[in-house]
Amino acid sequence: MKAVLLCAGEGSRLRPFTFTQPKHLLPIVGIPLLTHTINGIKEQGIKEFIIIVGHLEEKIREFYGDGSDFGISITYINQPVPEGTAQAIGLIESIIEDEWFFIQYGDVMVSPQTYDVLFQDFECNGKCMMISAREVDDPSQFGVLELDESGNLVKIIEKPQPGKEPSKLVNAGLYIFNTKIFEKIKMTKKSKRGEYEITDPIQMLIDEGEKIKVFKLPYWWKDIGLPWSLLEANKLILDDLPDSVLIIKGVMEPGTVVHNRVGIGEGTIVRSGAYLKGPIIIGKNCDIGPNCYIRDHTVIGDNVRIGHACEIKASLVMDGTKIPHLSYIGDSIIGRNVNLAAGTITANLKMDKTTVKATIKKQRIDTKRRKLGAIIGDNSQTGIGCTLMPGVIIGMNCAIGPNINVFEDVPSGTLILGKEEKEVRQWKIK
Fold it and tell me: Is 325 an active-site residue?
């Protein structure tokens, strides 16, 4: 059986990070999202992968090559203009040799244990087509599943109006198909959304009497579709990681405190007075402290500087970033090569304690999170005393001047300066 990973999407809801890298290479506990998926699947003995690429495809090709460094073989297929999942799957017909093949969306993560149960279920309960499912609070953003009494699929309703969903069970983005699907894909027409939806050929098969089993995911599942999904995925994996993975390979000066599970990469130095409360991961060649506080569910990339009197809480700090002194970073995502000047503060909790809202593709949405700090793109910087309000998104290559309070999103390539009128006069000390 071959594994097919759909990785052509632009990831526009994950901007500013997807301006410079495909979403499938965004780091989750220091490892690209797609690598987690590949590692989980290959444990099932599947070594032949087909990756459908599009946006910034050269970065995916360069990172994974032919797959040999990862113990697999990879065939790449370009989807030049992504027009839906059915179109993408139709591209692989000529290179599928076996009757059955596995498909997963490239921006979906599941617990590695899920693959064990899924493939056992496929083999033990009579081979038939399968679609994965997960119950969610807001199914209106997904394909919602309608099942019969036997647990087989009856219908998929793509992104129904809120309040009109037949269930809270949604399409989770993992499938096992056989080659019958290709015939129906050729008959598929564009939907109202202008895409060739995989739901249409699936429905054709159901209408002709084909049995499609719904596999309810037994462990955690995460759709990496929004920036704060990265924080949530980090937490899920950090909580799952065995102690044997979280190893201290760097140098710990006398006077440092480590509480709970902590992983530290080679070449990193943690200076005296630093307090590390795990689970956390710190990458290679970092300089941490002195006298800083790194709190649980934080992930710090490679070549990062965290200095004196900084507190980092439940955040993702990507490679090459510097937070040298006197800053608080809470529930935030900080991109690559960012520089935060002294006194930079990310506010992560609204005064009325309601959930934080953020603007994604010009729409104001509820993040469903009580705590969310700032989202800062690659190569941006702040001046001293800069304060960022909850849910603010700063683009890439931005500069925020000193003593600025940022209440609204800042587009990429923006410079913000605040100039105050000053009164100057003679003064005598009495």
Answer: yes
